[in-house]
Design a protein that fits this description.
about 120 residues; 4-stranded antiparallel beta sheet
Length: about 120
């Protein structure tokens, strides 16, 4: 019984970037249920525009349609049951973001620093 999760972001040229993520959960027992392994692979690509103030992003979730819930129900006397749940988990997304404000990385100028404040408190 185990689990793995990974997410990677790749910086490409000219404002392009890509993301690849996914997870896998192996067979697991939960109460009277034994669930088969399942996983999901996701990918996205992004392009920065308008002097890095905006971006277009296209992403796909569950590319391989591998996210499912299958397994067995056991520990019930005189009964055997298998189950399979199908999900419509594949999703395509196209988005646009735009930052109308100033960048958080821009530092605001200060008139005084902490040393000047401390000088004001200490009087001879």
């Amino acid at each position: 019984m185990g689990e793995i999760n990974s997410s990677n972001i790749f910086t490409l040229s000219s404002g392009w970037s890509a993301e690849l993520s996914g997870f896998y959960v192996s067979n697991r027992a939960n109460s009277q249920f034994i669930n088969n392994g399942t996983g999901q692979l996701n990918a996205g690509i992004q392009r920065k525009v308008f002097n890095n103030k905006g971006s277009f992003k296209f992403s796909v979730r569950d590319i391989l349609k591998t996210y499912k819930n299958n397994g067995l129900t056991n520990n019930i006397p005189n009964a055997t049951e298998a189950f399979r749940n199908k999900f419509n988990s594949q999703v395509f997304t196209l988005g646009f973001n735009y930052n109308f404000g100033r960048s958080l990385s821009e530092k605001s100028k200060r008139d005084t620093g902490s040393a000047d404040v401390e000088k004001g408190r200490v009087k001879n």
